[in-house]
Predict the 3D structure of the following.
Amino acid sequence: MPRIDSFLKLGLAQGCSDVHLAVGVPPMLRMNGDLMPIKFRDLSDTELESYVMEILSDSQKDHFYSGRDLDFSYVAEDGGRFRVNLFRKDTGVGAVFRYIPNEVPTFEKLNTPDVVRSFCDYHQGMVLVTGSTGTGKSTTLAAMVNHLNQTRSLNIISLEDPIEFVHPSKKSQVIQRELGAHLKSFADGVRSAMREDPDVILVGELRDAETISMAMTAAETGHLVLGTLHTTSAVKSIDRIVDALPGELREQTKSFLSQSLKAVVTQVLVKTPDGRGRKAVLEVLVNNRAISKLIMTDQSHQIPAQLQTGKNVGMQLMDQALLAAIEANEVDPDDAVRYALDKKKFQRFVADSSILHALDPDE
């Protein structure tokens, strides 16, 4: 058994989401959002490098020794699956292992709002799931693919970096392709997918102009495209896409977004009241005539007002969602306020008032 599996096994037994290994510190576990060291000696450069080399293929070693970071999936001997990022820093090697449950998530287990399930009914267009790193975007997308796989007869092509949740084909055919192993780039993957008779294309990350452009083309030509962005609101997601493409394509991009962008889900993970878990809290944009007009007329700053008043179609601002979760006793108010835009609305719920001052010294 690779020696690194011992740390991973310990992390899973503790219920962590991530295992961090870095030179000069002991192994650390991400527990409900907080990073905690385990009782172990500080790792040396040669020790840690020998650990990670035991689980790499020859091609992965060549890639890493060429000076590039390495992303891959790893299955431990006990069956635990992990998404791994291997990198170098000033003191030596570093690695982060994110646990991927073997069981594919469902909307029911995630307690996802019904409106997100309805996005799976679209036959074409683009649906974005956004948020910062570690907010559960992949989990939400996996639940969407799982729902499609169980309820519709489709050809679903998933482009990932790396493959996380494994989807056995059920009512649909699910083809999962991994960056590096099966395709050179997300843009190449989308280009190939469009020649493979797809109904749904999942793009693991819209990370560059070429990928965004190819995904837009796919969405405009009769396919449902699911994708992610590292943005923290619906408005920022729209602005990111407009700004990512060349200026001469600005009007064309706005036209696409106004017509083919179906929805944006932005999420954060907030601690539960007992501190033993985290709950996904979602901001939801559902594109309608009013939002479409705001996009076309460069008035995206007015979109939050539409989200606030669009509850009848499932829309909600992040602050609305956070307040609702607090009032339902689903999240810890002291943690929820960290993600709020208008923190004054949360003052009556926060037990530790020093948190508000720390987050906003002007309060």
